[in-house]
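[RESIDUES AND BACKBONE]
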Amino acid sequence: MKLSAAQEGKEYIIQRIETDDEELDAFLFSLGCYSGEPITVVSHRKGGCVVSIKDARYNIDTQLADAIIV
């Protein structure tokens, strides 16, 4: 399932990142967002969501959330 459809407050494990854009892939990796890493959706916002990765919170847009498969 895509991260944009994930339930708030529940921890998921990232299965894979689906993107053909190397720059986007590198950006997500720099946030600590890669296969096998736990991720939690803190809240859904208009145009994106707030996620928690490795004790840090990030506001990501829908395009990024759709690229993360949990």
